[in-house]
Write a structure and sequence with these properties.
The chain is mainly β. It contains one helix and 19 strands. It has an 18-stranded antiparallel beta barrel. A hairpin with a 7-residue loop joins β2 and β3. The longest helix has 16 residues. It is globular.
Amino acid sequence: MRYCLLCCAVLPALAVAAPATAAEGDPIEFADGATFDPIIDLRLRVETVDQPTFADDATAVTLRGRAGFEVAKSGFSLLVEGEGTLAIVDDYNDTIPGNGPEPFPVVADPDNVELNRLQVAYKGKGFGLTVGRQRINIDNQRFVGAVGWRQNEQTFDAIRGQATIGPVSLDAIYSNSQRTIFGHESPNNKFDGDIVLLNAGVKTGPVNVKAFAYLIDYDARLAFSSQTYGVLATGGLAVGKVKIDVLASYARQSDYRGNPVSFDADYLNFELGGAVAGFSLKAGYEELGSDDGIAAFQTPLATLHAFNGWADLFLTTPVGGLRDYYLTASKGFKVKALPGFKVAATYHKFESDLGGLDYGEEFDASLGFKLGRVGLLAKYATYNAKSFQVDTDKFWLQAEISY
């Protein structure tokens, strides 16, 4: 109860302290054509985890702050951003070794202070180049993303070039270090190696098609070294007065460089979505294949929380692979005092790719809106285990403000 009281006291205070104005967030011109754009972000979160295999439930109350700036002139820019996470209530396993036996489930938000981004960039007509520690989100972040849900963001030490030529888009990235969410005290705070990410896309009418190649050669995390080649198609189709959103993706993954296991595995994802009676509905199927139980399709650079259930029980694909059948419904409501008011719910049915073993099922729900400049969010996930992992309940209550 004391944690709920803490939220009730602090979250409204954040909202009152930050009234919105039209000028907030705009870059400040300080010289002829030169601008200064401050970066300020605060996120307060309560997260609880209930798993029967642990003696106690986990309770984490964490405050994440980011501060920095971006200066820009004539297409050139410099961005500097620091990030820090403070555990106000730390009754949870923060994944940092050396804490002794943990009676709590994992909440992967350890205390942390780090240089989150330091990049120089140039953006011209149809071309862009970014060098340094940077945030990288590609498409829907299924293969590469910033893991924005966790308090400590994932970034990359990389060079990235992007170009647009008519309907064609090109994106090429080389990174020698994946800076993870686990914090500066963790042995897993970074994974070094040679990471090459290539994308080429073309937009034809209502359809956007992209081909990609992701080559990961880790120095030490050898079991996750892989080469992945695939295609992603998204678009909208009109059926009478109804618009149907379609997504289809296929990829093939195999071992690469130092990986000691030889394997080949397929990835499939199909989605259909549309609006019915004011509700947004989406049905989908995702498969991360298994090579006869030897190894399974993995996505170690992805924003994993966004896929296969918010309970986060499939962050690493089981060797038997994974089939995820899911259905999502969401609806926005026009509430004058609470802009952006939206509710959403998702149901997942999980099976193994090898043998069709019933893993379990999960139900996720969320509610979000804004008070002034403060975004408020409540989320809940409950996983009912059948033959994989254990029953899990997670709850989040969050407030965030950004400038």
